[in-house]
Specification:
This protein is α+β, with helices and mostly antiparallel strands. Helix content is 48%, strand content 11%. It has helices at 30-34, 37-46, 63-71, 94-100, 111-120, 125-129, 132-146, 154-159, 161-171, 178-189, 198-224, 230-241, 246-278, 282-285, 289-302, 335-338, 373-390; strands at 15-17, 22-24, 49-52, 57-60, 75-76, 151-153, 309-313, 317-320, 323-325, 330-333, 395-396, 401-402, 411-413, 415-417.
């Protein structure tokens, strides 16, 4: 699909060498943090495949390329030679690496297939749908807690607690420990940001050790007293068929806790911002289950919570005309950019839930398609509908502010009033 769009102006912070297709964009540049879409729009017209110097690998900005590369088995998440096989000076990350090397996000078949098959049963749509009453009750309880104040920072008061509590309850971990789980998660996830410092690395490693120790102790309790939670199910699978090693079990639980809330927290804040700025009548947006689902899908497209996903080339491969990757080199898929590609979407910068070309790459595609997508969609459908129903006059109290956490993309604060 090719839509007509006038060529955008190049942002001052974006530097481009057309001869080499090399681009410099500091991902911490405040203008980029607050609005990366201006840069993406320029790239769509001038450099849909480019070498991002700040990251040191080739990147794809267009929807169709991203969608295809997610499914291209010449590339994958597992580092050739094994996790961090060629890394040096990582002894201080021993515990963090010990967790990550068993992550479903970092491995390929057949191990990936075995792990995903075990976990997937808890995240299929029919299982997730059973959580709807619990999510609605939780959303109402949270609003009860701040409605009388007339104002709120939505991120800590509403966007964060819902997915954290839900995933903790699914796993069977006490929700009283949610603040500690959040702390460990944030410290580990900070490792994925651009140019992580030694301080961030040390903190992430310590968090990985404490998180792992906590879950090992809890798994030992669940072995003695199993329940109907996901942790007990994974333990049973491990014991009955030796399907999961202890390390795989711990890593899978950490991944589910981290991934089970991080993106949904960001997407909830991004969605509320998008809806309020659109000027659309929220009574129409959430009038029916169908319109609610469409609003959530457009939120995922319009302002995604994850803007980059990387993959490794497994053989020397020409990825674009004149661009050859050697085995082991990475490439970057810019999800937030692909979702605003004028060649794939009519009026890509318009928040338009009823659009006829509704699609997005926010959850990925192929074998690494987000396993928690049905849960994330349900949480947002229920929580957003409840929020706008309970607080129909909600509006910005201060300009919304994004956090400097690229390639994650979410609100530092979202202060609202009514």
């Amino acid at each position: 699909m090719n839509h007509i769009q006038s060529a955008p102006v190049k942002p001052d912070y974006l530097h481009f060498d057309p001869a080499t297709r090399r681009v410099r964009i500091d991902p911490h540049q405040p203008e980029f943090v607050q609005n990366p879409y201006a840069a993406y729009a320029w790239l769509h017209h001038n450099a849909r495949v480019f070498f991002w110097e700040d990251y040191g690998f080739w990147c794809f900005a267009g929807y169709d390329d991203i969608n295809k590369l997610f499914r291209d088995r010449r590339f994958g998440r597992e580092e050739p030679g094994g996790y961090r096989a060629n890394a040096i000076n990582r002894e201080h990350l021993k515990d963090f690496d010990g967790v990550e090397r068993h992550s479903m996000l970092e491995i390929e078949p057949p191990v990936h297939t075995r792990l995903r098959t075990l976990v997937n049963r808890a995240f299929v749509s029919r299982q997730v749908e059973r959580l709807r009453p619990r999510i609605e009750k939780l959303a109402n309880e949270l609003i009860d807690g701040f409605e009388h104040q007339g104002h709120v920072d939505l991120m800590p008061a509403f966007a964060t607690p819902i997915p954290v509590v839900v995933i903790a309850e699914m796993l069977g971990v006490p929700t009283d420990n949610a603040p500690q789980l959040l702390d460990w998660s944030h410290r580990m996830v900070n490792m994925y940001m651009h140019n992580a410092t030694r301080e961030v690395e040390d903190s992430a490693n310590q968090a990985a050790k404490e998180f792992s120790d906590y879950l090992r102790d809890y798994a030992a309790q669940r072995r003695k007293n199993p329940g109907d939670d996901l942790l007990s199910l994974l333990l049973a699978a491990e014991e009955n068929g030796a399907k999961l090693s202890e390390d795989e079990l711990i890593t899978t639980c950490i991944l589910l806790l981290n991934a089970g809330h991080e993106a949904t927290v960001n997407q909830t804040g991004n969605a509320v911002k998008s809806i309020l700025q659109s000027g659309l009548d929220h009574r129409d947006l959430f009038a029916t289950p169908e319109s609610t689902a469409a609003t959530v899908e457009e939120s995922l497209r319009f302002d995604a919570p994850l803007h980059m996903f990387t993959r490794y080339a497994y053989n020397e491969t020409e990825i674009a005309e004149g661009v050859i990757l050697k085995a082991g080199e990475q490439l970057g898929l810019l999800l937030g950019s692909g979702n605003r590609d004028y060649q794939a979407f009519e009026q890509p910068d318009r928040f338009w839930p009823e659009r006829p070309d509704q699609k997005n790459v926010s959850f990925g595609a192929g074998i690494h398609f987000c396993i928690g997508a049905p849960l994330a969609r349900l949480e947002m459908q229920v929580s957003l509908a409840t929020l706008f129903k309970r607080l129909p006059n909600i509006r910005f109290a201060e300009p919304p502010l994004y956090d400097d956490t690229y390639h994650f993309h979410g609100m530092q604060s979202l202060k609202l009033e009514w």
